[in-house]
Write a structure and sequence with these properties.
about 280 residues; alpha/beta; five-stranded parallel β-sheet; two-stranded antiparallel ribbon; 9 helices; 9 strands; globular
Length: about 280
């Protein structure tokens, strides 16, 4: 978690120490999303940290939105690319960057056309829904996330990127289990609890697009889910396998969450792919 006070020394410890367990540093612009209040207020304050990250090859994982009330909430990712990300790449030409949970065609095009070492993750909920899902049948807090859902043209651009097999795109769930007491209220928390359904959603999206190759082929589906991320981070792919089975199942309405409950993404809805145990 990058803050204004993170030191270059801490980055070296993260890279060489801690049992080599730390694989990246997350950049939240302060106030951009839930639990980001301790994020970075001005990138210039962390330039010395980014210089060391560039030197040692530590990836910077970016929540890419501007924090500016003058910018429309649906444009904050696009404006972040223009104001911040493009300049960041010029100043740090070897810094490895993950543009996390991208939501727009502008982000897809930027990642496709920029230099090597810049990749992006895509969530299940941004592949499944466009912004109409925020309001269908009334306000839907379980579909409220940040970056916020975008229009259909952006969702289709994300699907094209995810199913392309391009090594610059891979799975990133951004799953956020907020208790209903903090979700269904004024100022409710942003985030979709997608963990229980994410793999099933990815499989169904890929199938709809005609891109669900057999897992043994390790083409677009397997690469997006299992290989591209591992390759970027320099870790070996898992030796375990997940069993997918074709057949409808109903997503649970809720899970216990401490003394409260949490509602999963697509609660009560029917999905066509189920995920079995690891083998």
């Amino acid at each position: 978690y990058l803050t204004d006070n993170t030191s270059p020394h801490e980055i070296r410890l993260a890279k060489e120490g801690y049992g080599h367990a730390i694989k990246g540093v997350k950049l939240y612009p302060a106030g951009a999303t839930t639990n980001s209040d301790a994020g970075v207020t001005n990138l210039e304050k962390v330039y010395s940290v980014l210089e060391v990250m560039e030197e040692v090859g530590m990836p910077l994982q970016i929540h890419g939105e501007v924090v500016d009330d003058r910018v429309d909430v649906f444009d904050r990712e696009k404006v972040f690319i223009e104001r911040t990300l493009a300049l960041l790449l010029l100043r740090f030409p070897k810094l490895r960057i993950v543009f996390e949970h991208v939501t727009t065609k502008e982000a897809v095009n930027f990642v496709l056309n920029t230099r090597e070492g810049v990749v992006a993750t895509i969530t299940a909920h941004h592949l499944w829904h466009n912004r109409n899902a925020l309001f269908k049948g009334g306000l839907q807090p379980d579909n409220y996330c940040l970056p916020v859902l975008k229009s259909e043209e952006h969702r289709l651009a994300l699907i094209e990127a995810a199913t392309s097999g391009d090594r610059k795109f891979f799975l990133g769930t951004d799953s956020a289990p907020h208790a209903v007491g903090k979700k269904y209220c004024a100022g409710g928390c942003a985030g979709c609890y997608s963990a229980p359904v994410a793999l099933s959603v990815y499989a169904e999206v890929f199938e709809r697009d005609g891109a669900l190759q057999t897992l043994e082929d390790l083409k677009s589906f397997g690469r997006f889910m299992s290989l591209n991320g591992a390759s970027f981070y320099g870790v070996p792919p898992s030796s375990k396998e997940i069993l997918f089975s074709r057949g409808p199942w109903t997503v649970r309405d809720s899970y216990l969450f401490g003394g409260d409950k949490v509602t999963p993404f697509l609660a009560g809805q029917i999905l066509q792919w189920d995920v079995g145990p690891q083998m």
